[in-house]
Amino acid sequence: MKFIKTNIIGVVLCLIIAATAKLLEHLLPFGSIVGTPVFAIIIGLLLAYVNFSPDFKPGINFTSKKVLQYSIILLGFSMNLFNVIKVGGQSLAIIASTITVALVTAYVLGYKILKIPTNQAVLVGVGSSICGGSAIAATAPVIKAEDEDVASAISTIFLFNVIAAVIFPTLGNIIGMTDTGFGMWAGTAVNDTSSVVASATTWCSMPGHDPKLALDLATIVKLTRTLAIIPITFVLALYKTKTDKSSDVQFSLKNALPSFIIFFIVASIVNTVTNSVLAGNESALSAASSLFSFLSSAGKFMIAMAMAAIGLNTNLVSLVKNGKKPIFLGLVIWVLIAIVSLIVQKATGIW
Questions:
Q1: What angle do CA 190, 330, 319 make, to 5 degrees?
Q2: Among the residues of the chain, which ranges form H helices?
Q3: Burial 71-103 (b: 16+ CB within 10 A, else e)
Q4: Cα 200–chain centre separation
Q5: What is the signed CA dihedral for 107, 112, 114, 115, rounded to 10 degrees?
Q6: In this structure, are residues 255 and 241 in contact, taking their beta carbons and an 8 Å threshold?
Q7: Residue 179 vs residue 164, higher pLDDT
Q8: Are 157 and 134 within 8 A, CB to CB?
Q9: pLDDT digits over 119-139, tens only?
Q10: How far apart are the C-alpha atoms of 47 and 20, rounded to whole Å?
Q11: pLDDT, tens digit, for every residue of 1-36?
Q12: CA 46, CA 69: separation in Å to the nearest integer?
């Protein structure tokens, strides 16, 4: 009861902000491009200047840290590893290439040349190359990133999400891409799921294109790309554990692989096994799919709550003042990912 009394006010505030953000996504014509998490962090940033009672602080901090981790676990229920491996195998070379380029660029350009703080550079790198806000959400607690680092990375990713969703279909037409090629390109070079879907949907609605192929392919490729969260967070946790000089804790697998990542993997395995076992039983499979869809949707909503909390904990003036370098880094990474995706497609004969 003490825990509930301490945290309930702050958690409810974040829930109200997330619900408002969800409403804005559905009501505004550009809402699907922006997405609920981005609306939530924007509202949080604006409300950060309201003089809330100190009683709100514990719940806000709990939401930005623990609720964020719980949300990642629930997202695992949307992962069917068999389907992703079967259909997404063709995109693995592109995904591996773009992620490698993004992370190397984040380290060399961001950390070494621009002198961006390590955690901020890492978050921009993983957000650009893996799956936008979800990757940032999964990585932040592993590398012990501050809320302002997360807010800066989310803002950067959001900027290029919007640009990509608007210009990618037109660019694809100009360079003569096929439906398959554009699906691969959108799935690997657009950051966040909402913008991948928006971009592919626009492409499919254009004259002369298959009404479904590019969208289906982009979604599957995006899902395959999302799975890179698992090895990336493990490697980062391993690196953080071995290099954290502020701690005298010795390295162990438990320290290197956070429990929420383990449960994320377990959730994806449960979804995969359940779909395989119930394949011949349509009613049971439908019930299980509905449950997993609900859990995944709850996870996405909880990410919006966490983004609201991060916004509430962030100084917007400081974010804008220090945001030029991360935005430039995000631009360079985004352009490189888009180019590398096209080059690998050409080299492998996909497009």
A1: 120
A2: 2-27, 31-34, 36-47, 57-62, 68-75, 81-88, 92-105, 118-126, 133-143, 147-174, 179-189, 193-205, 213-226, 229-243, 253-256, 259-277, 282-312, 316-321, 324-348
A3: bbbbbbbbbbbeebeebbeebeebbebbbebbb
A4: 18
A5: 100
A6: yes
A7: 179
A8: no
A9: 999 999 999 998 777 788 888
A10: 13
A11: 888 989 999 999 999 999 999 999 889 987 876 778
A12: 24
Smallest Cα–Cα separation from 218: which of 191, 258, 253? 191
Tokens of 322: 């220090």
Tokens of 15: 């829930």
- Show the tokens assigned to 49: 């200047």
- The whole-model pTM stands at 0.74
Distance CA 215, CA 149 (A): 32
CA 56 to chain centre: 27
In whole angstroms, what is the distance from residue 347 CA to residue 136 CA? 30
Q: Which tokens belong to 9?
A: 């006010």
Six-digit token string for 241? 């554990």
The answer to whether 137 and 74 have CB atoms below 8 angstroms apart is: no
Rounded-to-integer distance, Cα 75 and Cα 300, Å: 7
Distance between CA 267 and CA 98 in Å, rounded? Answer: 26
d(CA 171, CA 255): 45
Report how far residue 124's alpha carbon sits from residue 133's, in angstroms, rounded to the nearest whole number: 10
Q: For 97, phi and psi rounded to 5 degrees?
A: -65, -45
Average of per-residue pLDDT across 155-165:
80
Q: At what angle do helices 324-348 and 179-189 cross, to 10 degrees?
A: 150
Structure-token pair, residue 50: 């309201």
Structure letter (DSSP) for residue 115: -
| Contacts (Cβ under 8 Å, ≥6 apart) of 269 | 81
Q: What is the pLDDT of residue 53?
A: 92
* Distance in angstroms (rounded) separating the CA atoms of residues 15 and 33: 21
